[in-house]
Amino acid sequence: MSEAAKAELKRPPIVSGASKEGGHMPEFEKDYCAFISRAHAEGGELAEFDFGGQETILMSGPDAQEVFFRTPDEVFSQAQAYQVMVPVFGPGVIFDATPERCKTQLKIQVDALRYQNMKNYASVIAQEVEDWISDWGDEGEVEILHAFHELTMHTATHCLLGKEFRHSMTEEFFSLYKDLQAGVQAISFVDPYMQQPVFAARDRARERLEEIISELVATRRASGKEYGDALETFMTGTYKDGSHLTDTELTGLIIATMFAGHHTSSGAGAGTLLEIAKHPEYAAELKAELDEIYKDGEEISHASMRAIPKLESFINEVLRLHPPLVILMRRVMEDVEYNGYLIEKGKTVAVSIYESHINPEYFPDPHKFDPHRQEPERMFAYIPFGGGRHKCAGNAFAILQLKAIFSALLRRYDFELVGPAEDYEDERANMTIRPKDPCILRYKRRTD
Ligand code: HEM
Question: At the fourth CATH level, which superfamily is domain 99-323+388-411?
């Protein structure tokens, strides 16, 4: 855009209250949802803030969000915005790959989560859920964050890396994964290569994971067997020139898929169970629906592939009020005009899923949990899985998994809070939302 054209345009309003040292980062880190709401209230559709030295424009409302999601990667770059993930995924993977190789890697990832694998995943998940609750007995208490973390780690590794890996998985794998996760936090957006113990641990974990996965890949190559899981799709996928992914890329793609799918599914599962315990009236509706669906003894792996409308609406409402991924970002690679404003090259644009989901224009009485509410017709108002070309590739997998989990749980148990409802708030940290730790619920075998 020419300088003359740029001069004609307005600049997005700057959010008040930036500190000299850290811009808006300190306020953002304290409670980023509250900060985003304040930024939206001050600026409207566009509000610029200083995110650790990075000029970032919050785009709010369905019109602006549509532009965010529909603008091509060459203009709003996802890869440039998420460079913080490069040391986690590894060199040459997704955000560090050339655009063409990245496109192929994303396609291979989508292939791994396609319908033909989904049937296998449904049986794996159903089996994992049965194992998970096999020692629960008739009643007891469960800390649901830890429980869902473990369950979804088992389903993710089983579906991605296969049965043998899942059943020979040691504590080492959990601990490496934890070190990788700890290596991504708000401060990483300032510089993910800083000399910090968490970043050193992240790098050691990445290296060790590559050793473990390379061993698994070598065993599979030697066996010549078929596995029907994601690793098989990753190993057989090819670039345009017919070459396969390297071991570094395979490791990176597995980490990337686990990062995208694990904490999101685990948070959504815990959030759903908590809302069930908080709302016995809606739990009764879900139980009636599931009892009817399963009355003829249908397998969970089959039924959870079909529609379960009340449960799905309930999950949708959980994802509205407690979206596991809250803030999405892109780096601006070319000047863009939006509604008479300049979105300037070099800045970052951001969308807040949570802020979008509490917009009273589309969600009346937005803070009320109401699983009967209708999804707004306006596209890009309800966006738990994002939108456009980077919309969640694991959307179907995530919903299938939640349907399988709650089919098993609700047909067997009733759940209730062990303390006052006010004790069960959300924790908003590291740009995610999930129930506050510990989140203990009581369960009792159903007698109705
Ligand atoms: C309730 C659970 C989940 C939620 C709320 C969720 C949400 C999202 C969102 C908002 C994005 C868009 C990111 C962006 O635009 O920057 C995304 C992307 C993605 N998700 Fe999910 N996700 C969930 C589960 C999963 C699962 C289970 C998997 C895989 C097994 C997965 C794989 C992916 C992948 C691969 C992408 C990147 C797509 C791309 O960039 O082309 N997600 N997810």
Answer: Cytochrome P450 (1.10.630.10)
Residue ranges matching CATH 1.10.630.10 in the chain = 99-323+388-411
Residue 222: count of CB within 10 angstroms of its CB: 8
Residue 270 phi/psi, 5° resolution? -65, -40
Q: What is the pLDDT of residue 117?
A: 79
Per-residue pLDDT at 168:
83
The predicted-structure confidence for 111-135, as pLDDT tens digits, reads as follows 998 867 788 888 899 899 999 999 9
* Closest Cα to atom 24 of ligand 1: 261
pLDDT grade for 48, boundaries at 50, 70 and 90: very high
Question: Which atom of ligand 1 lies at the shortest distance from residue 398's CA?
Answer: 27
Atom of ligand 1 nearest to the CA of 256: 35
Q: What lines the ligand 1 site, CB under 6 Å?
A: 78, 106, 109, 113, 257, 260-261, 264-265, 268, 319, 324-325, 328, 384-386, 390, 392-394, 397-398
Average pLDDT, the chain: 93
Ligand 1 centroid distance, CA of 392 (Å): 4
* Contact in structure between 217 and 247 (CB atoms under 8 Å): yes
The rounded distance, in Å, linking the Cα atoms of 21 and 29 is 14
Token pair, residue 365, equals 């009485």
Q: Where in the chain is the domain with CATH 3.30.43.20?
A: 1-90+326-383
Question: The tokens of 115 are what?
Answer: 């319908």
CB 2 within 8 A of CB 337: no
Assigned architecture for domain 1-90+326-383 = 2-Layer Sandwich (3.30)
Distance from residue 232's CA to the centre of ligand 1 (Å)? 20
Cα(334) to centroid(ligand 1), Å: 26
